[in-house]
Design goal:
- The complex is a heterodimer of chains A (351) and B (650).
- Chain A is an alpha/beta fold.
- Chain A is built from 12 helices and 15 strands.
- The N terminus of chain A is likely disordered.
- With 650 residues, chain B is an alpha/beta fold.
- Chain B has 4 domains: 200 residues, 3-Layer(aba) Sandwich (Pyruvate-ferredoxin Oxidoreductase, domain 3); 182 residues, Rossmann fold, CATH 3.40.50.970; 76 residues, no CATH class; 155 residues, Rossmann fold (3-Layer(aba) Sandwich).
- Helix content of chain B is 36%, strand content 18%.
- Chain B contains 21 helices and 25 strands.
- In chain B, helix 5 packs across helix 7 and helix 17 packs across helix 20.
- The C terminus of chain B is likely disordered.
- The chains are: A alpha/beta (351), B alpha/beta (650).
- At the A-B interface, strand 2, helix 3, helix 5, helix 11 and helix 12 of A face strand 9, helix 8, helix 10, helix 11 and strand 18 of B.
Chain lengths: 351, 650
């Protein structure tokens, strides 16, 4: 621990990776003013900056929709692939085989993941692809100007659509039944929690689903709508206060957590997330409890936020394949083409 | 009776799922090992157990082993197809049948051989009761072997290969087979003219199916990623990769340099492949028509974002689900124009098993050089049937990974590059791979409009410029795709164009047209789209050009007419699709029906496809694998350009 950390109160222009906050920024947003998505983009920048993650070690992915535009607005220095509507998971699955050391950050929406992309969403969960999968969830299609998405609550009224007749899809529940290994929900109006959950998700190895209620200020922000700022603020039921503590951070750990009320979870990279339980004693690693909590929130109309479920025991997709240490996309012809003598062996295998 | 030696077909009618494929392959392989050119075609239903299925073998001393209408020898094991099978034997032919089928024999113009298969099996004490059904097909192989003089040593070699040297099943099957042969020797009197006699025309050749060859070629091309979804008849490409990758890419540390993922559907399969191709891996998928339909959306993305990926389409006959177990060349126009908006694909068209192997590795070079999806179209017949082939050859060219910038390159450029900048004027930009640590290595790939630096743009001139560059790239592709193969004839007056698995049928028809009708032709087998300069020249040369293909609408003809409108009046489409492999008969009759002889004025009323259609039951089935050029025929064959010199990148 000889490394010099930024002094408290000093002008910290660069992080431990030697990068300034600016190195994490993207192009200016073209989304609406006040859109929850912009706030999430800002928290992504903060989380990565504070975690000293080098942008070149991250690959961004998205599908189609307002949310899927947002990867342009952070991490200019990272590779990115803005793919097709609902198809981000398959692109990410293949791309992350190129270099298994890379971390994926996917940004999708409720239309992109819960409607057209539901199939791929569920399969990327069961494969435990090593990526943070953010769903900026607003219950509405923004780019096509205000149609219901599959997460819109039953009975919601929209200007040109009338009333929504169908039951909503619960993204966390879908992730849960597909065996996702990190499932969290947050609210764009609670940026501190968003950031801490982002950090925890980035420290997780495997798929980390983060369902963030992110109100659409243009098409779905009526005070009574589930995906609105007002509703979210009055109905949010955080499970716990979450703090992310970096791997080497005994020195900055503020021991203010209530004894007996806190739960510490060790992540793969040696970091710790500290969950300060609020009213309910909640075990994030207990599947039964997670299911009960989600069901209870659904029935009571709560916006239950926090880390709902965590399993740090499962291997990621690329770990399951026992790949060579060198990233596959750096292998040379000598390592990929069988040697000349093998052709005789092959011909001998034929009749 | 005059003997007919090494020139006949054998058709076996069985019940699907009864385990006859081991028996039929044994006949095929024994004939092959006796040095006689031979082909085998499996005509099977889309069903696991119960429906009628046929296997047809054609042996031909001259090497003509395409699908063949005549059924010289028929073996009937299936009551459900018995009447039809009996009817299909040519006069003077031979009919073997399992004598527990108690149906009327209505023919007197053929040799009839009842086979007491059950009695023979029960009479062999070495066969356990619970294995009787399994090996009973071997009895007809034994009877046939005795009657047409198959060499028992070659049969044993075939069984040893099939059972990978496992003594127990080899013995059990061989014993059943010998019991059949001994019974035939003691009880049957030869009343038909068909015999196999040893030759040396298959020396040094191998026998393989196209799907296996494709998988092996891909391994020699350094495949790193396969994502796929099961579909008939493409599945065995993935299964062969699963089988051979661990053997051929084995490392001392036991770790993998590749990954195979079975996706949830074809959309995800191609999506994963595009992700992998984008991140710098040699990436491929295998599918058939319905799967290709699902991949359309992603194919357009790969074209527009310029991601290399190889897509093998083992064609079956459509539209829709169509006939899943029958062959076709019906996906050509679809693959060529796949996706909405303006797009054109690079397509490779292997003509035999040898080329399936070669294009297995070459397709990656083309895809990575051109930075575009490459479609390799074969068909069920080539992909899943056993064909005679020259031994596979090791790639003599180093891998072409295309234009890729590493950290060092970017340092030299001081980070000054643009993903879609056309630095070299060939329409191909430079790319970087995720994981590149240079701070200016990254770019943002998108299926939306983008400029030379991959930035989002809706500007009209930027869009136009990009699309014109993509068109230029397609021009460049002509230098990198395989040139056609020309089978020319001295004094040729007409041209024939074909592609893929029809080669054997066309070569035989070309020979017949010359010998029986005095029509001399040059035959160009196209091996890729976009068309190369050799095609331009060929089309300019003849007054009549017959375009032969296995589909209803003449898809190659349509594309040629679009791209060579000036020659369109000379094109005569000879297209036919009914799910059966091409035969010399329909190629010949199709050409004759449209042939115009200015001097003799041959009636256009010659027998055409119609006659083929009118008598489906008479059609026999054979195979068209031609490994060596038929020696009887004097058609010098040469590849116009075997391997092109490839211009170096950068």
């Amino acid at each position: 621990m000889t490394e010099t950390l930024p002094m408290a109160g000093a002008a910290a222009n660069v992080n431990l990776a030697g990068l300034a906050r600016n190195d994490y920024r993207g192009a200016p947003s073209t989304l609406c003013q006040g859109c929850g998505h912009n706030s999430i983009s800002n928290q992504i920048v903060s989380a990565l900056y504070e975690m000293n993650i080098v942008p070149e070690d991250v690959v961004k992915f998205s599908g189609i929709g307002c949310s899927s535009k947002s990867p342009t607005y952070f991490l200019n220095r990272s590779f990115g692939f803005n793919s097709l509507h609902g198809r981000m998971p398959s692109i990410a699955t293949g791309a992350l085989f190129g270099d298994q050391r890379l971390k994926g950050i996917g940004v999708s929406g409720d239309g992109d993941s819960a409607s057209i992309g539901m199939g791929q969403f569920k399969h990327v969960m069961r494969r435990n692809v090593n990526m943070l999968y953010i769903i900026e969830n607003n219950g509405v299609y923004g780019l096509t100007k205000g149609q219901f998405s599959a997460t819109a609550e039953k009975g919601l009224q929209l200007k040109k659509q009338g009333k929504n007749l169908y039951q909503p899809v619960d993204i966390c529940m879908e992730a849960f039944t597909s065996n996702a290994t990190f499932i969290a929900r947050s609210f764009a109006g609670n940026p501190k929690q968003v950031k801490e959950l982002l950090k925890a998700a980035l420290a997780h190895e495997g798929i980390a689903v983060l369902d963030i209620i992110s109100p659409c200020v243009t098409f779905n922000n009526q005070d009574t709508a589930y995906h609105s700022y007002t509703w979210g603020k009055t109905h949010e039921e955080p499970l716990h206060e979450i703090s992310y503590i970096a791997p080497r951070a005994e020195i900055m750990l503020e021991r203010e957590m209530e004894e007996g009320e806190t739960r510490e979870v060790a992540m793969h990279d040696g970091s710790i997330i500290v969950l300060k339980n609020l009213e309910k004693g909640y075990d994030t690693t207990n599947r039964f409890e997670a299911l009960r909590a989600m069901e209870e929130a659904q029935q009571n109309g709560w916006l239950l936020t926090g880390l709902l479920y965590l399993d740090t025991t499962k291997p990621t997709l690329t770990q399951m394949y026992d790949l060579v240490d060198t990233p596959l996309n750096r292998l040379t012809e000598a390592e990929l083409r069988p040697e000349r003598a093998m052709i005789d062996k092959v011909n001998a295998l034929m009749f | 009776m005059n003997k007919i030696i090494n020139d006949f077909s054998i058709t076996v009618g069985t019940v699907n799922g009864s385990g006859s494929s081991t028996a039929n392959n044994t006949i095929l392989r024994a004939i092959f090992k006796m040095g006689v050119p031979v082909s085998g075609k499996n005509l099977f239903p889309s069903n696991i157990q119960g429906l009628p299925t046929w296997y047809t073998i054609r042996a031909n001393k001259n090497g003509f082993i395409a699908h063949h209408e005549h059924r010289d020898i028929v073996i009937a094991m299936n009551p459900a197809s018995f009447a039809r099978d009996l009817e299909s034997v040519i006069p003077g032919g031979a009919f073997y049948y399992a004598d527990d089928i108690k149906l009327p024999i209505t023919r007197t113009d053929i040799a009839i051989y009842p086979m007491p298969i059950k009695a023979i099996i029960r009479g062999d004490a070495t066969i356990p009761a619970n294995f009787r059904d399994l090996v009973s097909n071997m009895v007809y192989v034994g009877i046939l072997a005795q009657m047409i003089n198959l060499d028992m040593d070659k049969i044993l070699a075939a069984l040893t290969f099939h059972f990978k040297g496992k003594q127990k099943p080899i013995d059990m099957n061989f014993n059943a087979l010998k019991a059949g042969a001994e019974w035939a020797k003691a009880n049957l009197e030869k009343k038909d003219p068909f015999y196999i006699e040893p030759m040396n025309k298959t020396d040094g050749l191998i026998m393989a199916d196209g799907n296996t060859a494709a998988a092996l070629g891909s391994i020699f091309g350094g495949v790193q990623f396969l994502a796929w979804y099961p579909i008939t008849p493409a599945t065995s490409i993935a299964e062969s990769l699963n089988e051979y990758l661990p053997q051929l890419r084995k490392r001392e540390d036991g770790k993998q340099t590749y990954a195979v993922v079975q996706a949830e559907d074809e959309l995800a399969a191609l999506g994963m492949c595009i992700g992998a191709g984008w991140s710098g891996l040699r990436s491929m998928t295998n599918t058939s028509g319905p799967g290709l339909s699902l991949m359309t959306e992603f194919a357009g993305l790969a074209y527009y974002t310029e991601v290399p990926v190889v897509i093998w389409d083992v064609q079956r006959i459509g539209p829709s689900t169509g006939l899943p177990t029958r062959t076709s060349q019906g996906d050509l126009t679809f693959a060529y124009f796949i996706g909405h908006g303006d797009s054109q694909s690079v397509i490779l068209l292997p003509g035999d098993v040898f080329e399936c192997f070669e294009f297995g590795w070459r397709s990656f070079d083309v895809a990575e050089h051109m930075q575009t999806p490459v479609f390799v179209l074969i068909d069920l017949d080539m992909g899943t049937n056993q064909w005679i082939s020259k031994p596979f050859e090791y790639p003599e060219e180093p891998m072409d990974r295309g234009k890729v910038l590493t950290e060092k390159d970017l340092e030299a450029l001081a980070g000054n590059w643009g993903r879609y900048l056309d630095k070299d004027g060939d329409g191909i930009g430079y790319r970087t791979f995720p994981g590149n640590k240079h701070p200016s290595s990254s770019y943002f790939t998108r299926g939306t409009g983008h400029d030379e630096y991959a930035k989002y743009s809706e500007e009209a001139d930027v869009y136009y410029r990009n699309m014109e560059r993509l068109k230029r790239k397609q021009e460049t592709a002509k230098q990198y795709v395989p040139a056609p193969v020309l089978h020319s004839m001295k004094g040729a007056t007409v041209g024939i164009i074909a592609y893929g698995s029809t080669e054997a049928a066309v070569l035989e028809a070309q020979y017949q047209l010359d010998k029986e009708h005095g029509i001399k032709s040059d035959f160009m087998r196209i091996r890729a789209l976009p068309f190369t300069r050799e095609v331009d020249k060929f089309l300019a040369k003849y007054d009549q050009i017959f375009i032969v293909e296995m589909n209803r609408d003449g898809q190659m003809d349509q594309i040629l007419k679009t791209e060579y409108a000036q020659f369109a009046p000379k094109f005569k489409s000879v297209a036919f699709g009914d799910g059966m492999p091409a035969s010399a008969k329909w190629v010949r009759e199709g050409i004759l029906a449209k042939y115009e002889n200015n001097i003799k004025k041959v009636s256009s009323n010659q027998k055409s496809m119609v006659s083929k259609k009118a008598a489906p039951a008479k059609k026999s089935v054979a195979k068209k694998a031609v490994a060596k050029k038929p020696s009887a025929k004097k058609t010098p064959t040469k590849a116009v350009t075997g391997s092109r010199s490839r211009t170096k990148r950068k």
